[in-house]
Each structure stands twice: as C-alpha cells, then as structure tokens.
C-alpha cells in the first residue's frame, strides 16, 4: 500500500531545525542579530547607544563647510509666500525654494572663488619677483611660459 507523504521527509538541509517552535525561532533570530553586532556596541547601559558623539559631528561639519566654502546650516531656510491663481502649486513652491537656495550658494561660492583667485595671483606675482631677483638663468627656464 502506498501512502503519500509517508516516505522520508525532504526538508531544507540549510535550515538548522525545520521543526522548531515559534519561541525557538525568535531566540535564534535574536542570537543571529547579536552575532552581527560589533562586540563593543553590546553593553548593559541602553542609553549609551542613543548619545551623539558631538566632537565627530562638529569635525564632519567643519570639513563640509571647508569643502563647500559656506555653512549650509548657518541660515534659516527660505519659506515662499503664497501666490494666487494657481501659482502656488507644490512644484512651483519647490522651484522657488531651490532657486533662492542656489542664488545664495552661488554668491558665497563666487566670493570664495574670487578670494582663491586673488591668493593664487599674489602667489604667482611673488614667484615672478623672486625669479627676477635671483637673476640667474637655468637651463630649464626655456621650458617655462
């Protein structure tokens, strides 16, 4: 007599225990998550992870300010006025916000670029004066422009 399903079970060989209960499954998931976490992060004080490392945040902010040439967090965001006759659609409001933000950024970036250009020009003038004062010609001077 043949009975369907009475043969050897073909369960997933990759699964540790296919017949586990819900509680066993939950415990296994917690254990698997704890294995993923770095050992330094596991502590008995639950407030330790919620704290912000202010020194690294300030350092990252300082690096960002130097890279961009302006402080993006220094000024309040622009809030556009409400306009009549369908001109205050969501897309138009966002466009006005971006336009004002980009104008401010352009002014600041333009100013920093001008400062850098002035510094570069002064440095080149100093190098020219030093070269003129030295007066000695080198064999490599012919390659300079």
Automatic annotation (TrEMBL):
Q: Which residues cross the membrane?
A: none
Q: Where in the cell is it found?
A: Nucleus, Nucleolus
For the keyword Ligase, the answer is: no
* Positions of region (Disordered): 76-145
Per the database record, which ranges form the BING4 C-terminal domain? 1-46
Q: Which GO terms describe its cellular component?
A: 90S preribosome; small-subunit processome
- State the SMART domains in the record: BING4CT (SM01033)
Protein keywords: Nucleus, Repeat, WD repeat
Bias-annotated ranges (Basic and acidic residues): 100-132
- Asked if Repressor is a keyword of the record, the answer is no
State the Pfam families in the record.
Answer: BING4CT
Q: Specify the domain of life of the species encoding this protein.
A: Eukaryota
GO terms of biological process kind: maturation of SSU-rRNA from tricistronic rRNA transcript (SSU-rRNA, 5.8S rRNA, LSU-rRNA)
Protein name from the UniProt record:
WD repeat-containing protein 46
Organism of origin: Lates japonicus (Japanese lates)
């Amino acid at each position: 007599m043949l009975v369907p399903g009475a043969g050897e079970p073909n369960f997933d060989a990759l699964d540790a225990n296919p017949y586990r209960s819900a509680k066993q499954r939950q415990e296994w998931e917690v254990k698997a998550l704890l294995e993923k976490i770095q050992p330094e992060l596991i502590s008995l004080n639950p407030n330790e992870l919620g704290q912000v490392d202010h020194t690294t945040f300030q350092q990252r902010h300082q690096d960002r300010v130097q890279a961009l040439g302006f402080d993006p967090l220094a000024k309040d965001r622009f809030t556009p006025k409400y306009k009549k006759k369908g001109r205050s659609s969501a897309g138009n409001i966002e466009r006005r916000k971006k336009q004002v933000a980009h104008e401010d950024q352009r002014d600041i970036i333009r100013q920093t670029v001008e400062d850098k250009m002035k510094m570069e020009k002064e440095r080149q003038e100093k190098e020219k004066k030093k070269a003129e004062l030295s007066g000695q010609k080198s064999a490599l001077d012919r390659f300079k422009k």
